[in-house]
Amino acid sequence: MNVKKIFSTLVISTVILAVGCSKDTSTPTNTTGGSYTNQTVIPIQGVVQATVNLRSSANYIILAGSLISNVPTSALTGNIGLSPSAGSKITGFGGGEITGTIYTVDASGPAGSTPNAVGLTAAKDDLTTAYNDAAGRTSIDIVLLAGNIGGLTLTPGLYKSSGSLQISFGDLTFDALGDTNAVFIIQIASTLMTTSGRKVTLTGGALASNIFWQVGSSATIGTTSVFKGTILADQSISLNTGAVVEGRLLAQIAAVTIKGSTIVKP
What does each C-alpha distance from 83 to 20, 55, 96, 97 come to in angstroms? Predict the structure, then answer.
């Protein structure tokens, strides 16, 4: 039986998971009149999503608007930048924590930082363009998610939540089904949160560089969580102690705060 062919004919499928519960007893339905007996089965989408072009914002693992703060000791591999706030709003970094360049809009940044107001303004503009691109994607196959998505396996395509999403009571897996170019876009109207110790894992050739989380407000990655993908947040992004990210933390307006965290450019 060709599962991919069957599921690609679905128009819209929903997965409703109860927040704070380890298992949801409801049965997800779809608009074709069928139903799924296992809430962890996600339909394979037939519409291929193009990547979200980050343009110059791709040069950063952290890009924020109001503040970048760190509680040592973190390990960052990649550039960080802050705009429009002054470089003095980059705080808490000691020697050897960043393998990359700190870019600021003025000369008030940490020792060794590089003023580049023009480049940062362009990167923030590019971030806004990328955010709007991700938020505006549509598809006849779009899969609707709600609540806790821990325990699910997502295949390539476009996903949407009209509220908040949590990764709790289980880890989340992205399966590229053997296609290393496969793109995953998750549109979240409100907040994104992972609870302590939860993991995002990749299989089937999935790459962190092809996963995009568009967050309508703010994102929080829990203590010792392992996270994959680029977060495009309207407001703020926070990493709790020991969180590990393969991806980028790109906040349009507010702060990015980290605590003893590891961040690697995908």
Answer: 37, 16, 23, 21
Q: Tally the domains of the chain.
A: 1
Strand order from edge to edge, sheet including 153-154: 153-154, 172-175, 200-203
| φ/ψ bin of 247: left (φ > 0), alpha (ψ from -120 to 50), beta (otherwise) | left
Give Cα 197 distance to the centre of its chain.
17
- Is 157 among the domain residues? yes
Look at the block and give the residue holding tokens 């999503």: 49
Find the domain containing 42 and state its range. 3-55+118-264
pLDDT digits (tens, 9 = 90+) for 129-178: 999 999 999 999 999 999 999 999 999 999 999 999 999 999 999 999 99
User: Do 30 and 14 form a contact (C-beta atoms < 8 A)?
Assistant: yes
Residue 80 lies in a domain: no
> Does 67 reside within a domain?
no
